[in-house]
Amino acid sequence: PYYVSINQNLFLEASLHSSDPMLELFLDTCVASPTRHNFTTGSYAIVKNGCAKDPTYVEYSSPRRDTVRFRFQTFQFIRSNPEVYLQCELVVCRAFDYSSRCRQGCIQRSKREASS
């Protein structure tokens, strides 16, 4: 566990440990949950499909392609235990592959129109 106060900036870094220098890392999704076993019901998206969903989310540049750095302000789920669990999904791509998921960045999914 990592203990932080509410509304404190939480800085995170993820690195790929590989001997291949031609790989890069991309943060696709990062979700917070009040429980460690369920990241769908009652969860809160910080990043989804490469798009920032939390207004306090900030991505930082890194000198290395295989490292992702970001921060957001900590929070607590209402009427629940004081713990917040974080689950992030990262994508590994070939560097300089301009058709890769890493190069697509934020993918806005359009909502379908509801029929009457």
Can you lay out the helices and strands and say which pair or pack?
Elements: E1 9-15, E2 23-33, E3 44-48, E4 51-52, E5 58-60, E6 67-73, E7 85-94, H1 101-104
Antiparallel strand pairs: 1-6, 2-3, 2-7, 3-4, 5-6
Task: Describe the protein in words.
The chain is mainly beta and 116 residues long. The chain has one domain (8-96): Immunoglobulin-like (Sandwich), CATH 2.60.40.4100. It is 3% helix and 39% strand. The chain has 1 helix and 7 strands, in the order βββββββα. The radius of gyration is 16 Å and the shape is globular. The termini are far apart. The relative contact order is 0.30.
Q: How do the strands line up in the largest sheet?
A: 4-3-2-7
Helix content: under 10%
Mean pLDDT: 90
Q: In what range is the share of β-strand residues? A: 35-45%
Low-confidence stretches: none
Protein name: DMBT1 protein
InterPro entries: ZP-C, ZP-C_dom, ZP_chr, ZP_dom
Keywords: Disulfide bond, Glycoprotein, Signal
Domain ZP: 1-109
